[in-house]
Amino acid sequence: MDEHDQEPEKVLDVPIEHGARTMESTVQSVGMKDKFLYFDVRGRGEAIRQLMVLGGHSFEDVRISMEEWPGFKDQMPLGQVPVLEVNGTKIGQSVAILRYLGHQLRRAGSTPLECARLDMIGEVVQEFTNTEGAGKLPAVLLGFIKANKEEFYKTKIVPDVDKYAPIIERFLLENGNNGLFSGDRETWVDIFAAETFSKLTDYASHDALDAYPRIQALITRIHNIPAIKEHIAKRKPTPA
Ligand SMILES: N[C@@H](CCC(=O)N[C@@H](CS)C(=O)NCC(=O)O)C(=O)O
């Protein structure tokens, strides 16, 4: 038996050492607030805002108008927003931002395996936001896509909901009956899914989730967390 035949070292699923885990991040402790750049809509930005609110993480909420956007676009790492700027480093891609903040604010899984399962679910939610139906709802609401909203809902959005919502329901059921995807503490994925699916009932059709009680319960749970409840109550209505 040579060295190649040796048993591979077992990889244990041990608790993760998180980074800055207090309400005040390391960056804020040296006096610089994180800057969050997005348009003045919920879109791909609101779950990130809610996660920071939940974690007590104060941030500069930069809302860019369409007129201002050309002046910002070239400054963004991918020419798009959302972007989180941390101590001069700009992070793009909404899921990367959510995952980073999830770890910083202790709103991620507590072992690598739990994190991987949450990442999987987060990627499914993100896939839903990239669909040709549900994913294009903001473009329809903002008038970038000319379509009859009711018709678009029935023919384009409902098939996407029928495909993705049962998967999400199953992931919620796998964690038992506490209404969360993992463990007993809300994570970035709970916030992300609740925000993504609540936009359907808020903007597309109030009965969009009638067949999905677990998603509805998740939304209710997240929206009743005092910090998020207050944030939503104060949030100005936006068209998407
Ligand atoms: N995959 C990216 C997509 C980002 C994206 O599509 N951003 C849009 C707004 S939701 C944008 O910046 N549009 C302006 C542009 O592309 O010029 C993410 O999830 O962050």
TrEMBL record:
GO terms for molecular function: glutathione peroxidase activity; glutathione transferase activity. Residues 32-109 form the GST N-terminal domain. Transmembrane segments: none annotated. It catalyses: RX + glutathione = an S-substituted glutathione + a halide anion + H(+). Residues 111-240 form the GST C-terminal domain. One of its GO terms (biological process) is glutathione metabolic process. It is an enzyme of class 2 (transferase). Keywords: Transferase. InterPro entries: Glutathione-S-Trfase_C-like (IPR010987), Glutathione-S-Trfase_C_sf (IPR036282), Glutathione_S-Trfase (IPR040079), Glutathione_S-Trfase_N (IPR004045), GST_C (IPR004046), GST_superfamily (IPR050213), Thioredoxin-like_sf (IPR036249). It comes from the Eukaryota. Its EC number is 2.5.1.18. Belongs to the GST superfamily. Sigma family. This is glutathione transferase. It comes from Diploscapter pachys.
